[in-house]
Amino acid sequence: MVTKNTVKLVQSVAHVLQLFEVFRTADYKEEFGVTELSKILGLHKNNVFRLLATLEARGYIEQNKSTENYRLGIEIFDLGQKYLSKLGLLKLARPFMEKIVSEINESVYIGILKDGVVVYLDIVEANQTIKIVPRVGKDVPAYCTAIGKIQLAYASEEELNKMYMGARLKKYTDKTITSLPELKKHLKMVSENDYALDDEEFEESVRNIGVPIKNYEGISVAGISVTGPVCRMSMDRIEKEILPVLKKYSREISKRLGFQG
To answer: What gap in Å lies between CA 86 and CA 80, rounded to an integer?
Structure first.
């Protein structure tokens, strides 16, 4: 009988997956050279080049012609989108995201927490002259973004320690939280309020406010946030106009996932 334990791994496939893992776990580094990948993977440069050439031919890897380095291709993003669409969350949330934008005219994101980072899944952009650069498909730190913090607030002490104990919390601005005790204290407040604010913690002059999307068990399975420049996102406007709208529609999405709270 063939089992997972007795099946022999296909080495070339394992190497491809290891290659993708390098890109996935990179600390905001989008491109790698052949020599660099060879050292990381412990493979000969010729082997790495053949892997890259094969993946490039199928659109899963692309080369930056100006630097000659390699980065993930559009087919990877498309594959991820196909997976997410199967979950139904994006299809469910999109109409409500559009309603939020129609009422407040600020960009709305939806994202999930994965291994201590936020993966933005979708955006509905506002009709504004000054816009924030879309982050869809990119990994950003959870501890200094609204969508990340609103989901970290539902994590257990053990989960937080696993993600951040001994880790260096990079300082992006003067307002970034950089210590685990301080982060835990902040997340307790986030949990009590049931919303999270990124007040120029990841990017200067940018604020975003995030609330959870919960499933039938009351677990936060995603976050939804409104993002905009500080000049339009005053604290008064966030409290009186934006947050009530955001909470209203996040509850509607959660209800459709079975949440009864």
So the answer is: 10
d(CA 85, CA 102): 23
Virtual torsion, Cα 228, 202, 234, 225, nearest 10 deg: 50
Residues 45 and 146 in one domain: no
Which residues 6+ apart lie within 8 Å of 163 measured at CB? Answer: 115, 116, 155
pLDDT in tens, 130-178: 666 556 667 789 999 999 999 999 988 999 998 888 888 999 999 999 9
Total domains in the chain come to 2
User: Does residue 150 lie within any of the structural domains?
Assistant: yes
d(CA 158, CA 236): 36
CA-to-CA distance for 47 and 53, rounded, in angstroms?
A: 10
| Cα angle: 246, vertex 220, 150; to 5 degrees | 60
Distance between CA atoms of 249 and 226, rounded to whole angstroms?
Answer: 12
State which amino acid sits at residue 94. R
Shared domain check, 102 and 196: yes
| Maximal CA-CA distance, the chain | 66
Domain extent at residue 39: 11-77
Amino acid identity for residue 55 in this structure: L
Does 241 share its domain with 138? yes
pTM of the predicted structure, to 2 decimals: 0.67
Same domain, 117 and 199: yes
